[in-house]
Amino acid sequence: MAEQTINAFQLQLSRSPSSLPQMLVALDASQSAPRQVVIAGKPGASDTLALLREVNNRYHPNEILILADGGPGQAYFTQKVEFFKDVHPIEDKATAYVCQNFVCQLPTNDLAVLSNLLDTGKSPPNDNSAKQDAGKQ
Known about the structure:
The protein is an alpha+beta fold. The chain folds into two domains: 1-31, no CATH class; 33-135, Glutaredoxin (3-Layer(aba) Sandwich), CATH 3.40.30. The chain has seven helices and four strands. The protein has helices spanning 2-8, 10-15, 21-31, 46-56, 72-80, 111-120, 128-135; strands spanning 35-40, 63-68, 95-100, 103-104. Strands 2-1-3-4 form a four-stranded mixed β-sheet, with helices on one face. β1 (35-40), α4 (46-56) and β2 form a beta-alpha-beta unit. The longest helix has 11 residues, at 21-31. It is elongated and about 55 Å long.
């Protein structure tokens, strides 16, 4: 139905795209795969805030950011999405999980690795911290 609506306005979108800003948002969302970023950490902790800042330093309109703090919200999500039962800080450090198309990269608590994941969608080939993180789960 959404695709039919966008197609119905195709002529106006091509002639005057600025006249339909929300339609452009819908078109963009329909053409891209959303990415989920989950930060597992204590709210207000400096390492959690650093990871959140790294994510928020970029403009990714189709990105979903979730804070997994071990509280009631995470317990609720765990009932709905089994993945959340395995989301936790690694080595007592806030940890980022970057996922797209039902596939998650190795979790990391390294800001440089997170930056690369957010920019390219892939872990660097010589990333020791992510490999260490994965082995400790």
